Amino acid sequence: MIRAFRVAERDLRRRARDPIGLLLWVAIPLAIAVLVRLAFGGSAEDPPRARLALADLDQTLISRFVDGGFRQGPAAALFEVQTADSARAVELAKAGKVSAALIIPRGFADGFLNHRSAELVLYKNPSERVLPTIIEETVLILADAGFYIREILGAPIDRVMATQRGPSDLEVSELSVEISQIARRARPFLFPPILSLQVVQPERKGEADDYFTLLLPDLLVMSVLFVSQALAQDLWVERRRGTFRRNLTTGVGMGTLVLGKILAGITILGLILVVVMGLGRFAFQLELANAPQALIFAIAGSFGILCGLHVVTLLARTEAASTVLTSFIIMPLILTGGSFFPVEWQPPGLRWIALHTPNGWMRGILKDLFLEADTGAWLPGTFICLAAGLVLLSLADRLARRRMAGA
Amino acid sequence: MIQLERLRKVYDSIVAVDDVSFEVRPGEIFGLLGPNGAGKTTTISCLSGLIAPTSGKITIDGRDIQREGSAARAVIGVVPQELALYLEISATENLAYWGGIQGLSGGALKQRIPVLLERVGLADRAKEPVKRFSGGMLRRLNLACGLIHEPKVLLLDEPTVGIDPQSRQRVLDIIEERKRQGCAILYTTHYMNEAETLCDHFAIIDHGRVLTRGTLDSLLAQAGEAIQRESKPEPSLERLFLHLTGNELRE
What we know:
By secondary structure, chain A is mainly α. Chain A is 69% helix and 5% strand. Chain B has a six-stranded mixed sheet, with helices on both faces. A four-stranded antiparallel sheet of chain B has the order 2-1-4-5.
């Protein structure tokens, strides 16, 4: 065991002399995570707004109600409306500069008031899926609302439209009273107090930004994967340099050498985890719940991943093949495990896969710990990681005897 | 100190070493000479316990390398042909590691490192990362790492390849010094003049088999008139080597 510690100490000294390499491996996932999250949004305070190009060719009171439906009230937070003529509006939608173009044709009000067909034309941006659908659904709701308003308030509307110079003060008061009476009569049908919607915002934890709190597990897991790959690759670097062979001539067993390298690796990964979590807590003011438990679990998970990547590295027959093989394993894991595309955004099939990848599983437990969602899984998870790591370490030892001994 | 009896190593169907026997006594330098691919490195790998022989027996300081591997390897110092050093750390750290892994620690190790660095001419560069060293400096450090635990047996695989004359001379001086201190040394090289001046006994090996074995004088005498005729201006180990192994290029 003393020799394993000597091997570990040597590797730590080597890494200490080349910290840039390790920092790069941490910086890469940091940059990727931030860019991906920025590209796909992620902050709950700033939801994406649908851009709508609206061409009102009718220019009537009724058509302005449609326009106002997208600009007023809660809709104003969802839609960014740009007025244009019909050709320009369609052009903007086709060019992908707006989510959709809505054209209110001439005669729209006339058709609406006279119980004839009143058409609204919607051009959807073919490169977007969600936002144009939201606009389409909103237009359908507006059309339904228009139909019911026409049916319920048909008589007063007809009287207003019949006046040539606009309604007088007396007519306005009479209309108001009439509309109020209609509304009172219709109240039991229009406003049944049966369902109520209560929107609950998750409680914010201090000054922390939830977006970065959610980002942190991704960053930790990605860093562990990238750094573990570099550390495992060092077996082949030692083989190429002849130091592995020289070590074996001193009577140090293969198991001792592999164990020493794993001990050094886990020390490095532990330091990285502490530094990244510390930065998150103190530099970015993140409120990380259960940080000690998260650190213990993350170190155990790193041990499992590090041993696993040592096995993968040793399955290859050459140094180049080992680089390709480990990348071939790591990149799909990162892509499917929720680091690039958050698990919560994935379709059910992919989500199932994500939750069953080692990194996706690890990320989930870390996230639950940080957000205090579920704190029951980390301890069994720690033991699972340690047990899996020990099995993989033993496998790595056997493979190293085959790949490295005669090198 | 080193005894090989009928050593044989077969890889799949390729016979790398076949029926090789020799002995190296304390205070003796034994030159194992042969062209590339002759079986020298395989022999050294078997001697250092890196690979198990197919058959035959190897004894180091009275211990069977197969049965008492750890004890046998504790008295061996291996200086490989490649520069097997940790380039990121300093010469001192390299020596500390190789000494530590051989069981040295504390005061003994701390005392030995500066002495050895002085001897190989690296005392003034002791704290520098090894990756900044020249080829000659790396060779000298490579040798020092094999000597740090003061082994009784030294296995030197082309320790002077590709270095400047000053570094070579320093390496040869240190090897002579170790010989005088009673170390049994197995030495491989392609430099015949170097072997001539350094080694007490020789074996010339090719295709895994020992072609001839003995002192320089006895070998030249054995070669007889053939080598006498070919050699200009006088018989030499190099002429004998070419006479025995041929002029064909080897990879």
